[in-house]
Amino acid sequence: MSIEQTLQARSGGQCELCTRQDNLSVYEVPYSPDTTANSCVLVCGTCHDQLSNPDNMDVNHWRCLSDSMWSQEPAIQVVAYRQLSRLSAESWAQDNLDMMYMEDDVRKWAETGQDIEEVKVLDANGVALQKGDDVTVIKDLPVKGSSQVIKQGTVIRGINLTDDPTHVQGKVNGQTLFVIAEFCRRK
Questions:
Q1: What radius of gyration, in Å, describes the C-alpha atoms of the chain?
Q2: 72-105 burial string, b = 16+ CB within 10 Å, else e?
Q3: What residues pair up with 128 in beta bridges, in sequence order?
Q4: What is the per-residue pLDDT for 146?
Q5: In sequence order, which residues have a C-beta less than 8 Å from that of residue 10 and are 6 or more positions away?
Q6: Which of 92, 95, 108, 163 has the fewest CB atoms in 10 Å of its CB?
Q7: Which residues of the chain, if any, have pLDDT below 50?
């Protein structure tokens, strides 16, 4: 039996990620430990195009992973994990990623070759900020939900980076606040 026939039988003739039944083809999962059907997924044209060209990603299409991530097939788990990782800025994708369970060897396969770009937090001059840096506020900033203002020239010592690359966290006048990084300059 060919790989495609094996996948057709395993999937019941539908995309193993989104369950569409048209334009199905074999997708070989990158960095697979072997070249059998166990390292492939049967996908529709939409899924295949977006897996092959991540720049064309339609975020809402991948909500289907909420169901397919629970598959017992390691190749499907790997593809779901990688796509959810790419979409982790979306709260629903991060929630699914947090719930996802995989055996250790499957997780290692899923993480192999992942191109996770490190997002840099930049100050007003385009300098990359790091945890522990001291920054100076370059303009008066009102604090949301308060009448307080962070004055220009205020030094924030030992900043922390946040999940949002546009913000840094630090203590100002004994209070922990989030500050927009582009209004800071590294000391």
A1: 22
A2: ebbbbbbbbbbbbbbbbebeebeebbeebebeee
A3: 122
A4: 87
A5: 16, 37, 42, 73
A6: 163
A7: 116
H helical segments located in the chain: 3-11, 45-52, 65-68, 74-86, 91-99, 104-111
CB-based contacts of 81: which residues, under 8 Å, 6+ apart? 69, 97, 100, 102, 107, 110
| Alpha-carbon distances of 100 from 11, 44, 81, 107, rounded to whole Å | 21, 23, 8, 10
Average model confidence (pLDDT) for the chain?
90
169 - beta bridge partners? 160, 178
Question: Per residue in 82-136, pLDDT tens?
Answer: 999 989 889 999 999 999 999 999 999 998 866 545 568 899 998 989 889 999 9
For residues 137 and 155, what is the distance between their CA atoms, to the nearest angstrom? Answer: 6
**β-pair partners for 129:** 121
Smallest Cα–Cα separation from 181: which of 117, 138, 152?
138
- Name residue, tokens 């070759």: 113
Which residue matches tokens 């720049």?
Answer: 55
